[in-house]
Amino acid sequence: MRKVISITLILAMILSLAALAGCNASKSSGYEIALITDLGSIDDKSFNQGSWEGVKKYAEEKKITYQYYKPAEGTNAAYIEAIELAIKGGAKIVVTPGYLFEVPIYEVQSKHPNIRFILLDGEPHTEDVENPVYKTESNTLCIKYAEEEVGFYAGYAAVKDGFTKLGFQGGMAVPAVIRYGYGFLQGAEMAAAEMGLPEGSIEIKYNYSGDFAATPENQARAASWFESGTEIIFACGGAVGNSVMAAAEASKDKYVIGVDVDQSGESPTVISSAMKMLGHSVYKALESSYNNKWEGGKTWILDTSNDGVGLEMDHAKWRTFNKADYEALYKAVLDGKYSIIKDTTITIDELGLKYVKTTLVEA
Q1: pTM of the model
Q2: Which of 1, 65, 79, 353 is least surrounded, with the fewest CB atoms within 10 Å of its CB?
Q3: pLDDT level of residue 255 (50, 70, 90 thresholds)
Q4: For 238, left (φ over 0), alpha (ψ -120 to 50), or beta?
């Protein structure tokens, strides 16, 4: 009986470790580059997948072993456990996509000074919510993105394309999501002003769901918006976008703007996507490490000036807004024609919108 129990415990331990480890084409027993997924999966058509594509591209080009690890749960302890497992597995560089890794990287960067960490969308800090202490060690490179710029592109394009009843459904009200939303509002405002539309003629429903999940509640909210006249929703909340897409598919002539990566393959209702060039940024960060140009201790801000963000146009389904229009808009932002507010501490009222009428909707 004891022998049976022992075997059962051993199998349970093996399965627990298997839940943490991902898969990789390489058969090596050690993996030099590791990516730790956040709450989503490696094929989430969003942040994890975009980051993984950068790892995969660089590693395969340079013939370096690579692996991904999926934490057992969404806690700091589980993230740290997955990072430790990656390091034990031979990782010299660990890529962590998303702000959820800010506290775990703060904890492990000092413990492993010879390991390099690439943190996307955040900066390492203590777990203290009220007064966090930020510190980026020399073995950590942070990468952040100008979400306000690509949000601006999305709002501008939507209004130029003829939409007047828009929606913004964000996930949790973290700085990156807020910047997307504020940029969206400002882009719609600028387009309406340039088109000479009456003040208050663009209506935008605005919401933070408080999660990054595909839920019946998120789908029901989007459906109610579409039913009440909203024509297009910018979905900025990971899997929240799947709920919005499902609602759009159940409606007639309704559209969705995707986020982070090209989400055109997710639903026929996706008219375009506001993208962070995740794969490109991870590739560049890995390249900097292997080419002895590592900028540890710093934060890269990727924006229009360095091709860090952009509106997806190759698979776009805009009705009138075309590539030439987008290229002109991109150049205008690059040249500093528009002053895009990125401050996430202000209220929507402080954006000074005249042409856009925003209605805040509780979760």
Answers
A1: 0.86
A2: 1
A3: very high
A4: left
